[in-house]
């Protein structure tokens, strides 16, 4: 992924530098497709606030935006990307098939592409197991639409390891990625290893909402590095090579969440954060 366009300074608090080259440098490979480890989540961001959040994020260097048909903001995300001056091919865009649209995969993806104003998305996910089931038939449709070039990579969200196995057993093809709720408080090595063993990239959503940012163990590590607890949580994802998509519509917090490339956590610090998953 090359870095193009003028990152600009809109929305960057004074003293904050653009982080764009480093966001693009920290990525994972989904087959041939490179995905930045840090992205902007957009759940509950609507209307003008959604446009401004995505635009601010692109200005401060984000190159990855996560949306979904269910969020009702694909149009806003598309507008912000188009107006940003960042070349389309430099922005990784994810959207998702609502579980209720199982059986309408092609129409749903075509509607997403039209709303986003793009020819293809970088990643398309089944948002939830439809009706709580793995549904290999739906997964087959995603693979077909990927082969047609409408999505560069395809995967799932909110699937269990057993449901991932069901998809592989039925189709011989594993999802590139599974997006699940994740944070130090939810850390479970069996889930990490289970995804690694299956060759499925782990992506976490709600990295900040699901952790107590006032936890003294988190505060101690933050103080040691002169950063905020939120930055420690996001850096922890990076150390584990788990994709994180913190959501914010606040310009200062959008920039704060991307300023995680100037420090590293020690293995001991990572382990003590892992332990938050045990209470
Ligand atoms: P806001 O949009 O006002 O910034 P998650 O991505 O884990 O679901 O978290 C989203 C929530 O966390 C939102 O309420 C968001 O509020 C808030 N948030 C985002 N970034 C930070 C941060 N750096 N520090 C504290 N809260 C944050």
Structural class: alpha/beta
Principal-axis shape: globular
Q: Encode the helix/strand succession as letters.
A: HEEEHEHEHEHEHEHEHHEHH
Mean pLDDT: 93
Give the N-to-C terminal Cα separation. Answer: 39 Å
Describe the structure.
The N terminus is likely disordered. The longest helix has 14 residues. The protein is an alpha/beta fold and 279 residues long. Strand 6, helix 5 and strand 7 form a beta-alpha-beta unit. The structure holds adenosine-2'-5'-diphosphate.
Helix and strand layout, with pairings?
Elements: H1 20-25, E1 27-30, E2 33-36, E3 40-41, H2 47-60, E4 64-66, H3 74-83, E5 92-97, H4 105-116, E6 121-126, H5 136-147, E7 151-157, H6 161-171, E8 177-181, H7 189-198, E9 201-205, H8 216-225, H9 229-240, E10 243-244, H10 251-258, H11 267-274
């Amino acid at each position: 992924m090359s870095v193009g366009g003028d990152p600009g300074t809109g929305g960057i608090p004074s003293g904050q530098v653009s982080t764009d080259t480093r966001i693009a440098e920290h990525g994972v490979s989904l087959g041939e497709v490179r995905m930045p480890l840090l992205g902007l989540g957009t759940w509950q961001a609507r209307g003008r606030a959604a446009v401004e959040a995505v635009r601010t994020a692109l200005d401060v260097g984000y190159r990855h935006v996560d949306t979904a048909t269910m969020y009702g903001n694909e149009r806003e995300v598309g507008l912000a990307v188009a107006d940003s001056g960042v070349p389309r091919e430099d922005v990784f865009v994810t959207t998702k098939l609502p579980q209720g649209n199982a059986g309408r995969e092609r129409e749903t993806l075509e509607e997403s592409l039209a709303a986003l104003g793009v020819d293809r998305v970088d990643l398309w996910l089944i948002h939830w197991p439809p009706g709580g089931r793995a549904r290999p038939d739906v997964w087959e449709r995603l693979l077909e639409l990927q082969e047609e070039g409408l999505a560069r990579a395809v995967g799932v969200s909110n699937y269990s390891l057993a449901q991932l196995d069901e998809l592989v057993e039925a189709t011989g093809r594993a999802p590139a990625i599974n997006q699940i709720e994740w944070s130090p408080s939810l850390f479970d090595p069996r889930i990490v290893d289970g995804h690694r063993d299956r060759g499925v990239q782990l992506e976490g959503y709600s990295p900040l909402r699901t952790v107590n940012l006032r936890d003294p163990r988190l505060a101690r590590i933050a103080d040691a590095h002169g950063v905020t607890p939120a930055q420690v949580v996001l850096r922890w994802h990076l150390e584990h090579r788990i994709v994180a998509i913190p959501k914010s519509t606040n310009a200062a917090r959008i920039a704060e969440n991307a300023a995680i490339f100037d420090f590293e956590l020690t293995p001991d610090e990572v382990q003590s954060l892992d332990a938050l998953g045990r209470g």
